[in-house]
Amino acid sequence: MKIKLFAVAVLGAFATACASTPPDDNSDMPIEPPVTDNGGGAVVDTTPTGPAEGSAEHFTQTAGDRVFYGLDRHDLTPEARTTLRRQAAWLASYPGARILIAGNCDERGTREYNLALGARRANAARDYLISQGVDASRISTTSYGKENPTCTQSNEQCWAINRNATTTLVGGYTN
Q1: Coil, strand or helix: which one is 97?
Q2: Burial of 125 (0-12, 13-18, 19+ CB in 10 A)
Q3: What's the pTM value of the predicted model, to 2 decimals?
Q4: What does the domain layout of the chain look like in residue ranges?
Q5: Chunked in runs of 10, what are the mean pLDDT values of the chain (175 residues)?
């Protein structure tokens, strides 16, 4: 009797697992993705994915847009050097791109001290990019000091986020 009940349960589970569910109504979605023939008879999906190459979003996604510093520091950490090497490689691929590096600080310290520290941070990132082969004429720097915080809470976690040099793409690229 137990074997019969077990067999019925297994068959029921199997039948349930094989049941199909109706497709979601995605009437606003295209029926099929755009495809092209790659010349060899094979069909290739040409649906764009990710940000457009050479765009500011592409730069941020592939190279990273900021490096972080310790309290009252402007020397580059190993992680910062890795990010800056990725930025230099991206800039080598897009020789017409220009960037702005903005040095930022946390809210502690005077306005004047933080503007000077932010400038040292931006220049440290700039100098490293130049050492990696980026033409100095493609790089501008500025310091926002403590005037442009990413995080507005007054705690160590936010202060650490705000101690950075942020690189932004200010010009498109031409190959």
Answers
A1: coil
A2: buried
A3: 0.71
A4: 56-171
A5: 54 50 48 55 65 92 97 98 98 96 97 98 98 98 97 97 97 54
